[in-house]
Amino acid sequence: MQRRQSSETLKKPPQAHHKNQTDLSAWRKGRRTDPEKSVQSHQSPNDQENDSEQDSLEEALSYFGQVQDRVSLRKNNVLQKHLTTVESIAVQRGLPPEGFDVLLKVALSGKLADTVNTRLLKSLVPASVIPETSVVSAVSWLCVSKCSDNIQLLFLRWLITMFDFIDHKEELHALYGFFFSFLQDEKMCPYVCHLLYLLTRKESVKPFRIRRLLDLQVKMGMQPHLQALLSLYKLFCPELVTITLPGKMKTYFKNSEGPWKAAINTVRRRNQANSPVFQTLFLGTAQPQSRKRKWNTQLMIPASSTNRNNLEEDREKNCVKLYSRDESFPVEQLQTFSQLLQNIHRLEFPSQMGSVLTNPLLLHYMNCIKDESVYLRLYYWMGQTLQEECTWCVADNSQYEEEFKDFLETVYKTECFLQEGFSSCEEFLYKSLPLWDGVCCRSQVLRLVSWIPLGTFSEMKSHLYDPLVQLFFTSSLYFKCSVIESLKELLQNWLNWHVIHLDSESDSQVHSLNTTLSGLVNTVAELIHFVGRISTVALRLENNHLFLLYFILDFYETVCDIYLRYNLPLLIMPPAGVFYPALLSMDSVNLNQLCYIMYRYRTNLVAAKENDLSKKKMLQFKFSSQTYQEYNQYLIAMVGCLWTSSAFQKDTHPQGLRMDDELLKKTAVKEVKTSFNIVNHPAMMGYAVHFLQQAWPDDTTFNFSLIKGRRWDWYLEYLYSQGLEGLKVFIESSINRVSQASHSKAENVQV
Known about the structure:
Blueprint: H1 2-11, H2 24-29, H3 35-40, H4 45-65, H5 77-92, H6 98-108, H7 114-122, H8 132-140, H9 149-161, H10 170-174, H11 176-180, H12 189-199, H13 207-220, H14 224-236, H15 261-274, H16 276-281, H17 294-298, H18 308-318, E1 329-330, H19 337-342, E2 347-348, H20 360-368, H21 372-389, H22 401-418, H23 423-432, H24 442-449, H25 457-472, H26 477-504, H27 510-541, H28 546-559, H29 562-565, H30 576-583, H31 588-614, H32 625-644, H33 647-650, H34 661-666, H35 685-695, H36 710-721, H37 725-734, H38 736-750
Parallel strand pairs: 1-2
């Protein structure tokens, strides 16, 4: 009855409208109509074109609503005309909500040939929303088997694609059992599983449905779409689904959007550009949205009604029921943190899982309530979106790079909020990095790399390290710095994960923790070695560029403190290809940073040695003697350069500075042995000049040999006052005379 009234309404000629009512013409133009103004105002050519298209659409809808008997497309000019009208308007502007009931009815009723029905279904592109009543009415036509199997299949694909455009979902949820009955059809089964996946709630999981899915799995084999639905069922009711399912996410469902992809993009661009009112009508939000750009459609929670007045009325009616335990709390009414706390066990997440990414309250919920079904739905949605919309994997998507950047940025911010990476992002990166050019969405991709979950080295080498290496060595200096920064953040995120899980373990779980720790130590060690290798080569390629060296040393500033700060029994010294360029750097910042890193290495190694000797109850991992030997070699080289001026004689590292006296004489450099002490070092020479100017303002010879004895100590104090804290802690911890002097000075201050 309701459908008949809709059709009759469309047939009636336009009459006077209520002030708050929007007719088809006004909706198409993106503005309200005013009868008086419309008579008085002069219509522009665009307005005339809009009116003409609106009239044609109304005529076409009226025609399709009156179809009674089977009509053939061949030699039927009227049908061809109206079909072309619907197709052209749908592609350019999208169809209004009023048109879906008529077009779905005629497409599924079997009154037209499959060719026409297919074209109609492919034209059903919404400009705003799709009324739920139209969808439910269309589903009812599946019961009478009037349309062919191919049309039923295409309708299911359309329903999946347009799922987020449907203004309500309650009546669709009531049809869950009806859709479930279609699983027996092998052709429709993948799409029915996809639709059920979107509709499933905890109350939808029943023992008989689980048995049915298991029977289908025995019959069809381990199909991805069946695994998806079973995985969701198992998350809701693990006691009912006892079989073992693959734990890692995969692409469960095929893309259903093909026939509507281009039209949705066209409608999105047109509506965003031309209609300011459309921005407030679209899905009940205040932002322009798009279905094809899934992150735009789903990053905002749509109101449960297309009419804002109705929404306000619903809020008033339900205000007394907000704290009722028997009813779920709608997320569109969740506005404050106190509401979240009071209703945290009654929240029902939206069908548009992407809306979670930009809602801090829902992210708090995910942190507090570890609901695996929420994570599974979010991972599925995100994995599908990343795979289908990647601008360098899909040729047609290159024009949407800015939107894809925004989406990746949103995903990264969500990972930072939750302090964990998404497995769907990991899979996306592993699949797409070999195809990536290193330019498109560079900062966003490298940020996502920093949140890749901990994995085995063999997996990370083939999927992460190898693709990065190919880009790293052939890209610009700034790309190299960005990669090093990303890998440093990846290391920090792994170490933070370890600290959190270490604190949560009890004493009874030490054995299992040691097993897990062994894998973590190996994976972290391989990451550090990998960064060391690429850093050595990069410094050679970039002629030891100071900017690159800063990022490399910043990475090792994290590495040098792993044992004490992150409670992980691992210390790896930087390779000689990093240490010596830093020691001989022309920049005081890098030299000061190297001094601080060596000081922290010493502190960590001493603590590890003391812990090993005292046999404290700590995870028993011993550092190799090679680590201590390498540190001592570096220490001798640094002290020989900066303090004793003996590096060329005493440096014992195979790649060190040791040179024969005859070779040094051939350099023809005066006082070559003191060339790298804290006075003559190229990175420190500016400080020495400034110190001489202050101490002897009348002397313009800049005689560095004057800085010795007591003046040497004064010079040290001057360097410390210039903010070289790394140099200070290194000298005070590694040189006996200065160390003893600093300790005695500290004792005098305490007394």
